[in-house]
Amino acid sequence: MVATSKTPVHPATEPNYDRASELKAFDDTKTGVKGLVDAGIGRVPRIFIHSRHDDFDRPPNPNKTQFSFPLIDLEGIGEDPIRHKEVVEKVRDASETWGFFQVINHGVPESVLEEMKDGARRFHEQDSEVKKQWYTRDLTKAFVYNTNFDLYSAPAANWRDTSYCPMAPKSPNPEELPEPCRDIMMEYSKHLKQLGCSLFELLSEALGLNPNHLKDMGCADGHILLCHYYPACPQPELTLGTSKHADNDFFTVLLQDHMGGLQVLHQNQWVDVPLTPACNQRQVQKC
């Protein structure tokens, strides 16, 4: 059974609940969360129920502080020394106070951004029997599709499926990537490497170092492309698409779709990341 009251009993406390078997049965389907939705499931399985579901329905706090989210415009930083210095100062301030900032006019074409989102959807929305061939938990594969990398260790699973592909230091053979998204993955990765190097230069200068300092340390050598897919959820008050976490890389560059939902923790308060209408918007999380 699945608890549906405002304060349901967490599955781990239910008698005779074999979580390990339920996790394995779900994983063995190789169809992920999208497979549950395609099957017409009406209730969230116990493995996805988060223990602090009561927080999901908490009404907005009228006294909540309204923050001005850091937005950094990269246009012209290579041509105007004064503007370049201003941007470095903004990167320094945002990194120190937020650990996160949005960038616009970063040079990645809007068409590439939109096609990357479309490519991710094409992969995750293709026929399950076709998609199964990519399902694995072996991270040595050129392309990995599964749901929840920490499925067997996390207290509760997140309501999402993910594709994972290391793009550097060694680029994958395009033939090793799924046809619905291979071309755009290669193109998008090319632009992201350029943007990443530019950001490493700005971060180096923000630290008072030579622009190439972080790149010379090898910080820009690796590059992993993750695409998260969040199917519609029948009981969103019981689960999360992505639970709170901190990434373990040098920094993460995020591309949101039109749905939003991204939050960052700032001054002990969860702050919604605005969907900036300007073209070429990106978010950078400094870890």
TrEMBL record:
Gene3D superfamilies: B-lactam Antibiotic, Isopenicillin N Synthase, Chain
Signal peptide per UniProt: none
Record's keyword terms, sorted: Iron, Metal-binding, Oxidoreductase, Vitamin C
SUPFAM superfamilies in the cross-refs: Clavaminate synthase-like
Domain Non-haem dioxygenase N-terminal: 70-170
Domain Isopenicillin N synthase-like Fe(2+) 2OG dioxygenase: 223-278
An annotated Gene Ontology molecular function: oxidoreductase activity
Database matches in PANTHER family: 1-AMINOCYCLOPROPANE-1-CARBOXYLATE OXIDASE HOMOLOG 1, OXIDOREDUCTASE, 2OG-FE II OXYGENASE FAMILY PROTEIN
Family: Belongs to the iron/ascorbate-dependent oxidoreductase family.
Protein name: 1-aminocyclopropane-1-carboxylate oxidase
The species this protein was found in: Actinidia chinensis var. chinensis
